[in-house]
Amino acid sequence: MEFPELGKHCSDQSCKQLDFLPMKCDACNEVFCKDHINYSNHSCPSAYKKDVQVPVCPLCNKPVPGQRGEAPDIAVSGHIDRDCQSDPAIKKRKVYANRCNVKGCKKKELVPVICESCRLNYCLRHRHQTDHECKGFRGSGYSMSNQG
User: Fold this and answer.
1) Cα gap 38→85, rounded to integer Å
2) What does the alpha-carbon distance between residue 75 and residue 29 come to, in Å, rounded to a whole number?
């Protein structure tokens, strides 16, 4: 052999191929051939340090960090529902702004459904006085003015 130092053997136990253009894994610093350089192909124990993907919001083009192991769709969806500052996302949030005043109910309606007795907003399920245990206007905590 003319050049004994030329090339390196693949570090994968099943391969050990002599490669003249070996590549070093940036996570575990082992040398691999072209077939085993991917983290998954050589079962890299340090892949979790490097193989991190951060999805980008399709509306505002900002990176959306998420929890490890969580699907990127869930993180992006939560970002659009709460934090996204693009016009379509803000308009989507403001459409259903009429939240029900019954404790524990998280329903939001497109139009306000205001009780005539207590003047509070409710969802369609709690719109009747018997459904939201109406205490009348005095029990709502608002002042007597009927203007506005």
Assistant:
1) 37
2) 32
Tokens of 51: 């193989």
Q: Measured between alpha carbons, how far is 43 from 32 in angstroms, rounded to an integer?
A: 12
Instruction: Find tokens 């130092």 and name the residue.
Output: 5
**How far apart are alpha carbons 119 and 147 in whole angstroms?**
12
Q: How far is 141 from 84, CA to CA, in rounded Å?
A: 34
Q: Is the pTM of this model over 0.70?
A: no
3-state secondary structure of 134: coil
Express each pLDDT in 44-65 by its tens digit.
Answer: 888 777 767 788 888 888 898 8
At 92 the pLDDT is 64
Rounded to an integer, what is the distance from CA 83 to the centroid of its chain? 10
Q: Distance between CA 143 and CA 57 in Å, rounded?
A: 44
| 86 DSSP assignment | S
